[in-house]
Amino acid sequence: MKTGGVTALLASFGYAFLLAPLVLVGVMSFSADSYMSFPPSGFSLRWFEALAQNTAMSKAARSSVILAACVTMLALLVGLPAALAVARGQAPSWVAALLSAPLLLPSLVLGLGLLMALQPLALVATWPGLVLAHLVVVLPFVTRIMTTSLAALPADLEAAAATLGASPLRAFWRITLPLALPGVIASATLAFLVSFDEVVISLFLVGPRLTTLSVAMFRYTESRTDPLVAAVAVTLIVLTTLVVVAVDRLVGFSRTVGRV
Question: pLDDT tens across 222-238, in order?
Fold first, then answer.
């Protein structure tokens, strides 16, 4: 067997190993049983119907969508100028390292640190507290992608606009931002998905009146063993796949992220 064939075979085994849990969850989401078992004794849509009628999950899902949308907008507002400064060499080298620092910390440590920082400010179990906590997690992804996207743009276009009388702000809005739009959309998509899926840090900061879908799923599995969570997982997998594929077809998500 040639080297290429061996590589393809190993890659196939790797993909199969990674995707096997998704297949297992997908099969269990259509189970007709009242508890998790594999293989199921029958198949039905009862757990998807139960999900549609579960008000707690629906409320948590709405909270997660609102939270992720707010975090994404703030991450772009903060991350885009920071990425531009880093890409243009107008910021000290430690700024890029500082922006990437949250990625170096385990989520458990970061969540505990955020809890200790936000507790004295009475921001635990509040929207501002959750937004700030998720922003710390999401911002490194946005700045990393945007820095790569902006660094790939020719800087002489802005200089040419300046020679024609455009102010730096006008040159950014009319020249730089449209060219960097694929990176902006890709970073916004990734920021939304990361915030929506965050569970460890959210566990430290949510409360009885404010919770996210990932935390609701985690707490549901602590007391019940039915396949409802599998139905939630399959729904999220399908929606996430559709969003990523749509963005990839629109702006080349995989190529933009792949350059990071």
Answer: 888 888 888 999 999 89
Count of structural domains within the chain: 1
Classify 45 as helix, strand or coil.
coil
- Return the percent helix, strand and coil in the chain, to nearest 5: 75, 0, 20
Residues 6 or more apart whose CB falls under 8 angstroms from that of 153 comprise 176, 179, 180
Nearest CA among 19, 31, 25 for reference residue 232: 25
Contacts of residue 4, defined as CB under 8 A and 6 or more positions apart, other chains included, come to none
Is residue 153 within 8 Å of residue 179, measured between CB atoms? Answer: yes
Which residues constitute the domain of residue 191?
54-258
CATH number at residue 253: 1.10.3720.10
Q: Which phi and psi angles does 47 have, rounded to 5°?
A: -80, -25
Quick one: tokens of 117?
Answer: 């920082």
Cis, bond preceding 39 (omega within 30 deg of 0): yes
**Per-residue model confidence as pLDDT tens digits over 123-173:** 888 899 999 999 999 999 998 888 888 877 777 777 677 777 777 777 777
Read off the pLDDT of residues 25-35 as tens digits, 9 standing for 90 and up.
888 888 888 88
Residue 36 in domain: no
Question: Residue type for 1, please?
Answer: M
Per the DSSP assignment, residues forming a β-bridge with 43 are 31
Output the six-digit token pair for 5: 């064939």
**30 lies in some domain:** no
Which residue has tokens 């990437």? Answer: 100
pTM to 2 decimal places:
0.86
- The fraction of the chain above a pLDDT of 70, given in percent, is 93
Q: Does 6 map to a domain?
A: no
Q: Is residue 231 a contact partner of residue 48, using CB atoms and an 8 Å limit?
A: yes
Identify whether 97 is part of a domain.
yes
